[in-house]
């Protein structure tokens, strides 16, 4: 979710195999660099593999260009990597959030084959995505300060996740 | 196999995960749905050029994933393409052909022709036998005049004076068939296109939100993004939600200050010596 010169990215903490819970502290939001985070919902193994691939590509980029990748560029990179597997995709829907030039927040989400969806307010993905759309649509306000953004994101996440059996066990929220 | 995995790939599709995915699907894991555009896209030829129109809704099953997405893609300064079908496919195919057209422009030194884009698109789509699910309305004006084509996912094409594609194509086509005539002016063309898209928006469940229009004439292209907004958001609550600080139970907080990056630029010495 986008705020005033800041963004928030949040995920729940449950890892499960259909109805059985395996872990209650699974990390789904990963750091690419100080101002760029990616959250990966879907199959746990694909989320971790995709994260490792992306970190590898970003490190190569840093070595060549001697700077961090811009969020828009990173989104195009993720889209290309996912589309390459168009006929045998990763079972993963990423949510990308970062601060671009002049600390302008950037968010986008993709489906599992890389169709980018940019938004100016909020993006959601995962098993509770339908509830999340509803909760974010009603709770979002433009230009929120970081503290208010934190409260809004947490309440939206908690309320949606409570309506979904496959998500839960609290959440991680990162505000940048 | 371990050696080849980490090099940046040469392009084209990679089928490494197909076998694994087939096994997972047998074990009961359902593939998550793709983002479809469930669209109404139209194009028509008027006296000075071509007008393209599209709605702006992107759906994921029955849910609207994006209320204002862009379906009119840039191919060349004088050629634009509307896309329906699987969103990733339309975006990838139009980006790819747009880059190929740019390289072709550098090689020939001339403005791109619409038939070039058409042939590149249809040969790519035919190669993948319809599995790349992109249905396109391609329009542009080049040195041979205004052109409008439709491209189907299996690679067949049609050349028409007015065309519609997508789930809302029947609703839009009914508007065109009753009101199209040759030699329309620019204003009449834009009005007819917006009427056709509105027909799709209000009568087709897969199309909705706003109307995008693109007018291409010789030497000038105007992309009217959100030309009409017939579905404004009326359910805004003036009070909104306001959460008091500390309402959410926090288990632990960790604050990391971002490191300041210091850029050291030495007074550029010449490299020769």
Write a brief caption for the model.
With 176 residues, chain A is an alpha+beta fold.
Low-confidence stretches of chain B: none
Helix content of chain B: 25-40%
For this structure, what is the CATH homologous superfamily of the domain at 40-228 in chain B? Answer: Aminohydrolase, N-terminal nucleophile (Ntn) domain
User: Beta-strand percentage of chain B?
Assistant: 25-35%
Q: What's the domain count of chain A?
A: 1
Interface with most residues: A-B, 43 and 47 residues
The major sheet of chain B is characterized as: 5 strands, antiparallel
Reported CATH architecture of chain A: 4-Layer Sandwich
CATH-assigned fold name of chain A: Glutamine Phosphoribosylpyrophosphate, subunit 1, domain 1
H and E order of chain B: HHEEEEEEHHEEEEHHEE
Q: Portion of residues in helices of chain A?
A: 25-40%
How would you classify the quaternary structure?
Answer: heterodimer
* Main sheet specs of chain A: 5 strands, antiparallel
CATH class annotation of chain A: Alpha Beta
Subcellular location (chain A): Nucleus
Keywords (chain A): Cytoplasm, Nucleus, Proteasome
Protein name (chain A): Proteasome subunit beta type 3
InterPro entries (chain A): Ntn_hydrolases_N, Proteasome_beta_3, Proteasome_sua/b, Proteasome_suB-type
Q: What does this 3D model show about the protein?
A:
The complex is a heterodimer of chains A (176) and B (273). Chain A has helices spanning 44-65, 71-84, 129-139, 146-161, and strands at residues 8-12, 15-17, 20-23, 29-33, 36-42, 92-99, 105-110, 116-119, 171-175. Chain A is of the alpha+beta class. Chain A has one domain (2-175): Glutamine Phosphoribosylpyrophosphate, subunit 1, domain 1 (4-Layer Sandwich), CATH 3.60.20.10. In chain A, the strands form 3 sheets. Chain A has a 5-stranded antiparallel sheet with strand order 4-5-6-7-8, covered by helices on one side. A two-stranded antiparallel sheet of chain A has the order 1-9. Chain A is globular, with a radius of gyration of 16 Å. Chain B is an alpha+beta fold and 273 residues long. Chain B has a domain at 40-228: Aminohydrolase, N-terminal nucleophile (Ntn) domain (Glutamine Phosphoribosylpyrophosphate, subunit 1, domain 1, 4-Layer Sandwich), CATH 3.60.20.10. Chain B has a 5-stranded antiparallel sheet with strand order 10-1-2-11-12, covered by helices on one side. Chain B has a 5-stranded antiparallel sheet with strand order 5-6-7-8-9, covered by helices on one side. In chain B, strands 3-4 form a two-stranded antiparallel ribbon. In chain B, helix 3 (87-108) packs across helix 4 (114-127) and helix 5 (169-179) runs antiparallel to helix 6 (186-203). Chain B is globular. The mean pLDDT of chain B is 87. Classes of the chains: A alpha+beta (176), B alpha+beta (273). Chains A and B meet through helix 2, strand 8, helix 3 and helix 4 of A and helix 2, strand 4 and helix 3 of B. Chain B: GO terms for molecular function: threonine-type endopeptidase activity. Chain B: Keywords: Cytoplasm, Hydrolase, Nucleus, Protease, Proteasome, Threonine protease. Chain B: This is Proteasome subunit beta. Chain B: It catalyses: Cleavage of peptide bonds with very broad specificity. Chain B: It comes from Digitaria exilis.
């Amino acid at each position: 979710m986008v705020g005033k010169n800041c963004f928030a990215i949040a995920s729940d903490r449950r890892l499960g195999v259909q109805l059985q819970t395996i872990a209650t502290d699974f990390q789904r939001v990963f750091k690419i660099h100080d101002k760029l985070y990616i959250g990966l919902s879907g199959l746990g193994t694909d989320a971790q593999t995709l994260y490792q691939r992306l970190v590898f590509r970003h490190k190569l980029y840093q070595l060549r260009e001697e700077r961090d990748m811009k969020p828009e560029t990173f989104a195009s990179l993720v889209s290309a990597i996912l589309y390459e597997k168009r006929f045998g995709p990763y079972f993963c829907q990423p949510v990308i959030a970062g601060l671009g030039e002049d600390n302008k927040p950037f968010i986008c989400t993709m489906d599992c084959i890389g169709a980018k969806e940019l938004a100016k307010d909020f993006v959601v993905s995962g098993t509770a995505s339908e509830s999340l759309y509803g909760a974010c649509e009603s709770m979002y306000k433009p230009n929120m300060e970081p503290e208010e953004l934190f409260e809004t994101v947490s309440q939206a996440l908690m309320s949606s996740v409570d309506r979904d059996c496959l998500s839960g066990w609290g959440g991680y929220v990162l505000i940048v | 196999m371990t050696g080849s995995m980490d090099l940046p790939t040469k392009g084209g599709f990679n089928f490494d995960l197909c076998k694994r995915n087939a096994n997972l699907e047998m074990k009961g894991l359902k593939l998550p749905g793709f983002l479809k555009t469930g669209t109404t896209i139209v194009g028509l030829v008027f006296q000075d050029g071509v007008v393209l129109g599209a709605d702006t809704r992107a759906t994921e099953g029955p849910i609207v994933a994006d209320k204002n997405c862009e379906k009119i893609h840039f191919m060349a300064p004088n050629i634009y393409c509307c896309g329906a079908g699987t969103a990733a496919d339309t975006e990838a195919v139009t980006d790819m052909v747009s880059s190929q057209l740019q390289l072709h422009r550098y090689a020939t030194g001339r403005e791109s022709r619409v038939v070039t884009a058409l042939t590149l698109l249809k040969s790519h789509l035919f190669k993948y036998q319809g599995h790349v699910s992109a249905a396109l309305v391609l329009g542009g004006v080049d040195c041979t005049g205004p052109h409008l084509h439709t491209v189907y996912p299996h690679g067949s094409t049609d050349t028409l004076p007015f065309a519609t594609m997508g789930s809302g194509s029947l609703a839009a086509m009914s508007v065109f068939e009753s009101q199209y005539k040759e030699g329309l002016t620019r204003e009449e063309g834009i009005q007819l296109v917006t009427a056709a898209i509105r027909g799709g928006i209000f009568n087709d469940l897969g199309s909705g939100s706003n109307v995008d229009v693109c007018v291409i004439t010789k030497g000038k292209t105007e992309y009217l993004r959100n030309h009409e907004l017939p579905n404004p958001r009326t359910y805004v609550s003036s009070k909104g939600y306001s959460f008091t600080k500390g309402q959410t139970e926090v288990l632990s907080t960790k604050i990391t200050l971002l490191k300041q990056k210091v850029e050291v630029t030495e007074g550029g010495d010449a490299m020769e010596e």
